[in-house]
Amino acid sequence: MSTQPSKQLETFDNAAPERDYTIHIETPEFTCLCPKTGQPDFATIKIDYVPDLKCVELKSLKLYFWSFREEGGFHEKLTNQILTDLVTAIDPRFMRVTGVFNVRGGVYTTVVAEHRQAGWVAPEAVHLP
To answer: What does this protein do (predicted)?
Structure first.
């Protein structure tokens, strides 16, 4: 596998496709460029998903995130692009991508984008004492 930035997301088979379970991924080192000034933007990207038949391979995800370092984009566009690319790669039952962007001009931005597979219904939450 390459150690260069790449938009190609690798996948692997879900080991437990018969079960709904959540995978949480978080990276505090996402960087991109401000589309107005060209200055770097920094964010924590959080991904929560319920896989169906495929899961995303983490090193390819790291290289995918790295590919944004030289790209300009508004926070909303980038967060939704990450969601679209991941859904295209693995077709999860459910996915939420949260971009928590560091301060820019005195303003913090958090963008949340979600995907729900057609026909999938979330299981009822279990609350334990």
So the answer is: Catalyzes the NADPH-dependent reduction of 7-cyano-7-deazaguanine (preQ0) to 7-aminomethyl-7-deazaguanine (preQ1).
Q: Tell the burial category of 121 from Cβ atoms under 10 Å away from its Cβ (0-12, 13-18, 19+).
A: exposed
Whether 34 sits among the annotated catalytic residues: the reply is yes
Cross-strand bridge partners of residue 13: 54
Candidates 20, 34, 52, 85; catalytic one? 34
105 found inside a domain: yes
Residue 5's identity, in one-letter code, is P
Instruction: Tell me whether residue 41 is one of the annotated catalytic residues.
Output: yes
Q: What's the CATH code of the domain at 37?
A: 3.30.1130.10
Domain interval for residue 59: 25-116
User: Tell me: the pLDDT tens digits for 65-116?
Assistant: 999 999 999 999 999 999 999 999 999 999 999 999 999 888 999 999 999 9
75 annotated among ligand-binding-site residues: yes
Report how many domains make up the chain. Answer: 1
57 annotated as ligand-binding = yes
